[in-house]
Write a structure and sequence with these properties.
Keywords: Signal
Number of helices: 11
Number of strands: 18
Signal peptide: 1-20
Distance between the termini: 34 Å
Largest sheet: 8 strands, parallel
Order of helices and strands: HEEEEHEHHEHEHHEHEHEHEEEHEEEEE
Strand content: 15-25%
Radius of gyration: 25 Å
Helix content: 10-25%
Shape: globular
């Protein structure tokens, strides 16, 4: 190999050229059906149609929590319809009075001390695995706990782990804030005889105060470790906990080559272990010796890498193939590709179908732009090709009223949005799990960046991580293999409707010799499945072989 070519390969290790092999016959993929539906017109606000697809269920190996907008549009007609549309659990703020024994409106006002209002014989219709709880900053900062650290991490040294018994403000501590979550079972009336404990299936933290000064890092890490450690003492054996931050690595939706250069050392807050600090009297503030040497990443049940999109991610006219350019699919895949290498913990991402608020130049400062149809559908398909365990489908709004009077100053926000983007997302879930849910049985193999692609009719083959794929400007493909079944998702991101693209995908491990050609139109999300042919070789014996 000429020296200059060798240097090129070393500098671009994310693109792995593979040896060409004699190609057997092509196997045609069976395209996954699409549901014909008319999206809610753009003139209609505050409404989305949950019946653009029929019933389907999420595999038991996966989880998808609904914390979106508009459950009120259908819940009175059919309370369990979300569970028949691919979701597996409901976040507390989206529950009804028949599902939790507290006043839901009081909870939405952040009145976390709302009183139980059901009879002694009432029980929630939700199973524990159908329940989820998100704890935001306000849970900590508001009365009765009054912990401003949740908004200002620099106050870690002033925050109590526990206060001495008899203190006038004894509840103003991290220990009490976590301990009082043991009342979770009260709202469902399923407390065990042994006493109160949380019986939510999953508890998510959304504090977002991970950043802090270097000098404050140890104090900050101590609180993060203690928070999880204390919560683990008051949850049921089947409850799992984690948070939107910290994660082993946060790319903030950029998928840069630098994100892939260090996949051996997680970010500091994920792995920093708790240690006493004599100068700030951590023992006197109630930090127990038991947590010394433990880390947040060690204690949580799952990690939560993911990305919210900026308005430029939805702009088809913007550049998307530079290393610093934003790219919806490269970022969706990249967060998973990097973090799965940094931690074996299962992954659950937050997903939001509108652009996030941003102060970056050239970005929308308000969340007023929905994801284009192909991006919404693609989020619901490609994400699950990474081997992730689950997701939270989130929105900053809750109940919807179709075509309510527009609130001045809130145009294209909240209830004033068009929510047809939900229908495209739901369609993606339906295509994937209605027709291929059987593949997600725990025996599947996710190829991720090891998916082998060719863009010159099989003359050369490459494996590319999401960043290299982005920079190539070529179509994306990701595959899942389960036994002799292969499922492939492919798309040409940001392509114009009239653009036609072609690529090949192969799988040649074990006895399988699978090759296929995929034709793409525009930026449509292709999904197809095939039974892979096997190639058997005859093993010949010999005598006196050495």
């Amino acid at each position: 190999m000429p020296a200059r070519v060798l240097v090129c390969v070393l500098l671009s290790a994310a693109t792995i050229p593979l040896k060409a092999q004699p190609r057997p016959n092509l196997t045609t993929l069976t395209p996954t059906p699409r549901q014909s539906f008319v999206p809610t017109p753009q003139s209609v606000r505050g409404y989305w149609n949950i019946d653009v697809v029929g019933d389907f269920y999420l595999p038991t190996t996966k989880s998808l929590t609904f914390c979106g907008a508009g459950r009120n549009l259908h819940v009175n007609e059919s309370w369990d319809k979300l569970f028949r549309r691919g979701f597996s659990s409901i976040e507390r703020a989206r529950m009804t009075a028949d599902e939790i024994g507290f006043d839901p409106d009081a909870y939405n006002r952040h009145d976390y001390e709302a009183k139980y209002n059901k009879s002694a014989t009432w029980k929630s219709r939700l199973r524990p695995d159908q329940r989820a709880l998100i704890l935001y900053q306000s849970y900590f900062t508001d009365p009765p706990f009054n912990l401003p650290w949740a908004r200002n991490s620099e106050l870690a040294k002033d925050t109590y782990f526990t206060r001495p018994p008899g203190s006038a403000n004894v509840r103003e501590s991290m220990g009490v804030a976590m301990s009082e979550l043991d009342g979770g079972c009260v709202g469902f009336n399923d407390c065990p005889p042994s006493g109160e404990m949380s019986t939510y299936g999953k508890i998510f933290f959304d504090i977002e105060n991970e950043g802090t000064s270097f000098e404050n890092r140890q104090e900050h890490a101590n609180l993060y470790v203690y928070k999880i450690w204390k919560l683990l003492k008051v949850i049921s054996p089947f409850t799992e906990v984690g948070g939107i931050g910290p994660v082993p690595h946060n790319s903030y939706g950029y998928s840069r080559s630098s994100d892939f250069n260090n996949v051996s050392s997680p970010d500091w807050l994920w792995e920093m272990t708790a240690q006493h600090i004599e100068a700030t009297n951590t023992r006197g503030r109630g930090m127990p010796d038991t947590i010394v040497g433990k880390s947040f990443g060690e204690l949580v049940h799952f990690q939560m890498p993911g990305t919210y999109y900026l308005s430029s991610d939805f702009d088809y006219a913007a550049p998307h193939n530079g290393d610093e350019d934003r790219h919806w699919l490269a970022s969706l895949l990249g967060e998973q590709e990097v973090n799965m290498k940094l931690s074996p913990k299962k992954r659950i991402a937050w997903q939001w179908l509108f652009n996030t608020q941003s102060s970056e130049p050239g970005q929308a400062s308000r969340a007023e732009f929905p994801a284009p149809p192909a991006i919404a559908e693609g989020m619901a398909i490609f994400y699950w090709f990474t081997g992730a365990h689950g997701a939270i489908f989130w929105d900053d709004w809750n109940e919807l009223t179709p075509n309510a009077p527009v609130v001045p100053g809130r145009e294209n926000l909240d209830n004033n949005r068009n929510y047809s983007v939900y229908e495209h997302y739901l369609h993606g879930l339906w295509r994937l799990f209605k027709y291929h849910g059987d593949l997600f049985n725990g025996k599947e193999k996710y190829l991720n960046e090891n998916t082998e692609c060719s863009y010159d009719n099989g003359q050369t083959w490459v494996r590319m991580n999401s960043n290299a794929q982005k920079r190539s400007g070529k179509p994306f493909a990701r595959a899942i293999v389960n036994g002799d079944q292969i499922l492939i998702a492919a798309t040409q991101p940001y392509a114009s409707p009239d653009k036609e693209s072609q690529m090949m995908v192969r799988y040649t491990e074990g006895n399988y010799q699978f090759y296929t050609t995929i034709n793409l139109k525009g930026d449509d999300i292709f999904l197809g499945r095939a039974t892979m042919p096997k190639v058997y070789t005859l093993a010949l014996g010999c005598r006196n072989c050495n």
